[in-house]
Amino acid sequence: LIVEANNKETVLRHAGICGLAGTATPSELKSLYRHSSRALRIAAVVALRRQRAFKELTAFLDDPSPQVMSDAVRAIYDEASSQTFNDHPEVLDAVANCLHSTQPAPVNVRAIAANRRLGTMAAAKRLVTFLVTPNLDPALCIEALYSLESWPDTSTLDPMDGRHFPVSQGDPDVLGEVVGPQVWSMANDANEKVSRRVIALLRKIEPSPAQLARVSGFVLDEKQRISIRIEWLRWLRKQKIDLFSSVALQALASRSTELRVAASQELIGAKRGRGEVAEYVMRALKESSNVPELQQAIKMVQRLPNRNAIVTRLADELFAGSISPQVQLEVFEVAKALSKQDKALEAKLEEHQSKTSPKGVMTTYGMSLVGGNVEKGRRIFQGHAQAQCAKCHALKQTDKQVGPSLEGIAKRHSREYLLRSIVDPQADLVSGYAIITLQLKDGQTIAGNLISRDPQAITLKLPDGSIKAVSLSQVKSESKPIGTMPDVRSFLSPRQVRDLVAYLATLK
Q1: How far is CA 402 from CA 406, 459, 485, in A?
Q2: Answer CATH for 2-187 from 1.20.272, 1.10.10, 1.25.10, 3.40.50
Q3: pTM over 0.85
Q4: How distant, in Å, are the alpha carbons of 168, 292, 317, 361, 363 from that of 419?
Q5: pLDDT higher than threshold 80 for residue 137
Q6: Which segments within 35-96 are labelled E, that is strand?
């Protein structure tokens, strides 16, 4: 039946599999691994999976058909438990040995997880051999790197699918032996995610003096990628604090603003070079025209010995309107933090707020207009748990959502409009997205989204999706149009609002 149907009749295939699973023994099903019919071999694998006959399934791991082999790997790994691999360690080893760059991704991700579960020298060597394969899919590369990075750790969750499936610590002496020059060279991979994961893995390994010297030189080499230089600088902090301090102090004079900022942050975090960092901060405040560097320098003023005098001066400039708009929020936040110990500064802040608060929400949030971080704003838009921006707003006109599409919004509107839409969403209601209720003279009540209004009629989109035009002569009263967007001020800080504005301003 299964052979004749040849996977063309799904009902017959299903019936055949049920019959095999219910009547054939695991040994009988295993004997089909050499059968010429691919359809029958697939059916045998599914039947063995239903019987949880893991040992017999390994016979199909060398099948010439990628489908059969992949189904067998899935059947073993996805149905197994810790007890399964304790009772049949050879089954786990068989799946681990399936790891090869020519195998399909579903096979390799399970084989990677199986090697991590083994935690042996042989398993680590297999992962490294796989990892250094030329032109390996970056996603699989990152998966293998995660497995090696977690080698010294235990986990209660499966690395492949996240189910509760505890993983023991791997042999702690293995990584230093198997991670060689080829893996180290991958830290400069063209794919930045791969580079970062390689450096994260190398944090778990004791470096040689020569490797430390190479990393130090890389950090200070102005020709190298800045993002990787920063990652290596952080790596040095974890490995050799004295060497890190020396390199980071030199990095404060780098031509790269990103590296200077990162070096100052890492030095402060490590409680090293406070005098040099203070000099850098003062120099940045006086000379830098780079907004992120200025923002970071202002935040770091709080750690300086003469912070009160500096912050008071910056606050005076803020109140006088002479501070760059991009850094006004940083100055305000630093001043607010220090005002708890400085009564004079506290009085100035209260006076400033008493003047701005009555002028409305746009004045209150005026410091959030410019200076935001686009990437942080993108993350807020896509993933903030309370804001839920992406659930209501699509980025393309073709994608229908609860709220209006944001495609091209920065081309159509100013930053002021974008900010107002966030902090005062009822101010500018978009046609079709404001709810209104009409009381008619005949006693009826009609509610829907306001589409348009003219001297003769109000047009609504009703809950059932239909469009209804209501003559104004029939309307007794109407409610004020209300937008459905929540008030984000209760859960987004002024800094987050600024980042969100920065991101929306890129949607052209």
Answers
A1: 12, 19, 10
A2: 1.25.10
A3: no
A4: 50, 20, 24, 10, 11
A5: yes
A6: none
